[in-house]
Amino acid sequence: MGKIYRHSYRYHYGRYWVRFSFKKIFYRRFEVRGKDRFKWNEPLIFAPNHQNSLMDALVFVTTLRQQPVFLSRADIFVNPFIRSLLRLLKMMPVWRIRDGFRSVPQNDQTFAKCAEVLMDRKTLILFPEGNHDNKRRIRPFKKGMARIAFATEDKCDFKLGLKIIPVGIDYSSYDKVRARVTVSYGEPILIADLEPLYRQDPQRAYRKLNQMITERIRPHMIDIPWTDIYDTVMSLRTIFGKRYRELRRLPGKTLFNRFDADKEIIDLIGRMRDKKPEIIREINEKTTRYNDLLKKLNFRDHVIEQAPYGFSRLFRETILLILGFPLMVIGFVSNFHLIKFPDYVSRHLFKDPQFKSTVAYVLSFPIMFPLFYALQTLIVWLIFKSVLITLLYAVTLLPGAVFILHYYFWFKKLRARFKFNRLMKKRDPRVLELVSLRKEIIQRMEELLNADRI
């Protein structure tokens, strides 16, 4: 494998495009906090929760000053093209029992490389949960990371200064473009502090380290441990989130304002499950019914939240869409194939939603966008033979792609609002029930909040 941790100029310069396309284009908002808790030239292992396949790795590619080395499951290294891409991203294979017992011993070579990375005071990213999951909850950790950390420090007589940084990552959506992301770095854990326990009983030291990481990562991620009300709690982040921030006088202007409020709502529900089970049960039933009705009517919560919709508001939004239509057409002609094809491939060939965003991003920005933008710009030059026209065309390509995405979002919102008004005029019982249920859910949540203060 060579010295994968050496500084790579391809990685260095390629990261500019990845950072821009990942944080500014593919995702709409991206906020990071806690980077002041570590130094870039320390030997570090970052231990994040794992929810969104390769996108979790790209979080570190785009937010760290270092060129981190990753471990990833060995079966995705089979294809030569994928293997070369993963190698460029400084990823090393790790074998699991499901890959065959004969493959597992090959991990010795990988773990030895990990020790080299850390002893050279470089950065390693390990996902202690071992695989990704589509539920926002912390899962039991594997022992691999603990073994690597202690083995490396043991080689250095526990004088290396190796630290583990717990990291929480949260996505507003796993598979949708222009979603929102928060990345929160937690308090470091100094491995040398556990040397006495490791000398006495390595297995206990592994468990203790995993326990410490779990405790320190939990405040930095959305952790919903209850399977019976998981969907309800997820929905309450949206339904009750704004009202809760108003009651708590939280500004809600940043993603972390909302994240912290969501954490408080989840903690509130956790405290009140035993104290007020009847209210929790009622909220769960109402929220389940509310979500069922939203799905049947193809509505999102914001349609109900922002109602009613007066004539002047709908007229103004319609005019804005009409005025933006020519720009949408221009962007559509240049970008439709670049958006639609990756979206089609990701949604129809991959059932796991955590792979959908990865496939869509990888097909779009590292591959199709640069290739087709260069080809399309060349065609415009050959047709018009004008530097000015060609330059204007080139600089409007990417903004045009972003505009048509948002235009589509605006169109869907406006269509839903007209549909809501139409059903309200007919006094459709489903819409009336939706409005009533939302008010009742918020009222019951306020009751929980008041009961918690007593």
Structure at a glance:
The protein is α/β, with parallel strands linked by helices and 454 residues long.
Instruction: Give the terminus-to-terminus CA distance.
Output: 61 Å
Largest sheet: 8 strands, mixed
Radius of gyration: 25 Å
CATH H-tier superfamily of the largest domain: Glycerol-3-phosphate (1)-acyltransferase
Explain this structure.
The structure is a single chain. By secondary structure, the protein is α/β, with parallel strands linked by helices. It folds into two domains: 9-220, Glycerol-3-phosphate (1)-acyltransferase (3-Layer(aba) Sandwich), CATH 3.40.1130; 311-436, no CATH class. It is built from 16 helices and eight strands. It has helices at residues 9-26, 53-63, 80-88, 107-119, 144-155, 195-200, 202-217, 230-239, 241-247, 255-275, 277-297, 301-305, 311-349, 353-384, 387-425, 429-453; strands at 27-33, 44-48, 69-73, 91-94, 123-125, 163-171, 179-185, 189-190. Strands 1, 2, 3, 4, 5, 6, 7 and 8 form an eight-stranded mixed beta sheet that branches. A hairpin with a 7-residue loop joins strand 6 (163-171) and strand 7. The longest helix has 39 residues, at 311-349. It starts with 8 loop residues before the first helix and ends with a helix. 32% of the residues are buried. The model has no long low-confidence stretch (mean pLDDT 93).
